[in-house]
Design goal:
The structure holds two protein chains of two kinds. By secondary structure, chain A is mainly β. Chain A has no helices and eleven strands. In chain A, strands 2, 4, 5, 6, 9, 10 and 11 form a seven-stranded mixed sheet that branches. Chain A has a four-stranded antiparallel sheet with strand order 1-3-8-7, with no helix packed on it. Classes of the chains: A mainly beta, B mainly beta.
Chain lengths: ~110, ~120
Amino acid sequence: EIVLTQSPATLSLSPGDRATLSCRASQGVSSYLAWYQQKPGQAPRLLIYDAYNRATGIPARFSGSGSGTDFTLTISSLEPEDFAVYYCQQRSNLPPTFGGGTKVEIK
Amino acid sequence: EVQLVESGGGLVQPGGSLRLSCATSGFTFSSYAMSWVRQTPGKGLEWVSGFSVSGGVTHYADSVKGRFTISRDTLKNMLFLQMNSLRAEDTGIYYCAKDRDTMLSEFDYWGQGTLVTVSS
């Protein structure tokens, strides 16, 4: 199965900062990479699909890029509600797999 | 409004069985793939099983193959997961998730989750 490695594990930033999160796949997944946000006690929420497409209702400050094995989620200016855990997920090969997550915490 | 509501979780002894249910509304259930995804302390988010509309094919993670069975009732718009021979490592929150496509893809809507605890 395809292993997704996310870095860093934790990102300590302040509101208004730019956040850059990385996801690396153990083999190429083309553009079949999604990003999710999860807050404590809640289910994950789809942010980005197919590497760069924002899901319905997702603010423009969230953007995705990359293809093949290296992907990036960028939050251009952190809002208080953006402090959460972020996961990447590939759908290129079965089984679908998730990364281990990056926690974006308040500095 | 899309809604997914899971039920059926609980405490079960190792080797026991549980049947999870997911009631759905707000979308054409028969037109989308559906999946079960679990979140465990040990492995984080893990896709467990999925039902593709394309060809009516079911898929399973290796960790549950032969023990879990996914099914659906298109008249009642419900998804099920029959879990047999449960192990301690199956403990976690089980989410019902709607795929964005007719085949396994990304998960654009999730339920609130149901907790499964396997312990003696």
